[in-house]
């Protein structure tokens, strides 16, 4: 699936992304200052080293004056400088690395936190693999920028300034000529940035597609194997992987052609020019051999950071593209519905009223049209209808997974939007047809890390829904390990744990999405009594496919194409001999 965020980044957009990344440095001002001081020390040491050698060549080697004290001083100074560079470089690198890891840690926390605040609409339109890729792969690319690129850029800036100071001290004229290199370097950077942006955008998106395909394959492995789709998935993955390979190869060719060879040619040309300059100068005046050595060595020191910068431009470009993708996620406006909080909003009775509610997922096609009904406190309202009739949409709105704009939904006379989300989640319990199990143990899946809930509370909730019978037979009982998605548990066992999870918080409103669909007949008979206890004293909204499970409901709504086609009790609807009557006959093997 192609990422919807596919577009080239302009220079101003890249600058904006870079500035935003730099803002993450603010909490680390002291550490950065210390790291920069250490960096300056190491660069200074690197510049002083050739000057010490120049002094030895001109003052001792050329003149054959090896006065012991002076030579030993130079030797000791050189050794001290080298040892200092090694030690300081270690601490400087360690500090920069720590800062980079802390920044990426914060970016990942920001992205992960934002994901949990996004509305369900975002997840409807965005592949899970693409989201995972942004939080993992893209942030890892940003980390590389902070770890190597920014450090390299700083080394280059300080190094170039220091080298030019040393060059001007040796030969001002030649140093002035060599400054012509700077605009050439800037031009090279501009050209590279202009052409490489599209390459890296393409690479990151193809990597996102790879993650999406892997995620889809793993989550649906049962269906893939059941329908013998292994080869199709392998072919699709190969196609995406080949595209990623071609994009990467195209970028490597571009890097190889523009960066390394160009810098090498420039360095060779500058060295030749410098030697020629000293050669012509020597015809009219003497030139110290040490000066020639120091000058050519410093030129190499000048090109080293530039070469490193050029080599890391690719990492920098990737990081900007990746950061743009991460920030797009962090800036995503499609948030979960906002609550317009009022004072003292508590759900006490659980009376639910839908009034003229119209809803659309895409803003074009209405999936609910003028839905109106009342579920009085303690009553059960059942929703029935064919697939796509709007049953799940009513639950989605009641749970505040989606925002509605037309009509009103109230609980206990107050708008659904006026309650704190915590109050809604505590007082409105949801049991889905296919409940999700988290990696951990039975207890944590029931308690859901609610610190105020004790093990006794967990056991009481399990006994209430008769889940304790199978839990106590498991190894470790409530400490029994639950694998990802509860893979080692049966569908019925997962459903019973979901019942216990819901009842553990003692909700006032119970929302059941065909909660007994995945439970075998024997278990269903046993759990019907538990359902009766669960529903007693609670307002219940239940989606039902098996009409036998909701015959005692105070109100049954028959939905058809987003509208309430029929309403009434079980007997009233049978007497109408409409849609409900036909569904009942089909389920009971009767014909009209």
TrEMBL record:
SUPFAM superfamilies: ABC transporter transmembrane region, P-loop containing nucleoside triphosphate hydrolases. Keywords: ATP-binding, Membrane, Nucleotide-binding, Transmembrane, Transmembrane helix. InterPro entries: AAA+_ATPase (IPR003593), ABC1_TM_dom (IPR011527), ABC1_TM_sf (IPR036640), ABC_transporter-like_ATP-bd (IPR003439), ABC_transporter-like_CS (IPR017871), P-loop_NTPase (IPR027417), Type_1_exporter (IPR039421). It comes from the Bacteria. It is found in: Cell membrane. It holds the Pfam family ABC_membrane. It is a multi-pass membrane protein. The chain crosses the membrane at residues 30-52, 72-91, 146-168, 174-195, 258-280. Residues 34-318 form the ABC transmembrane type-1 domain. GO terms for molecular function: ATP binding. Its main location: membrane. Residues 352-586 form the ABC transporter domain. This is ABC transporter ATP-binding protein. It comes from Sporosarcina aquimarina.
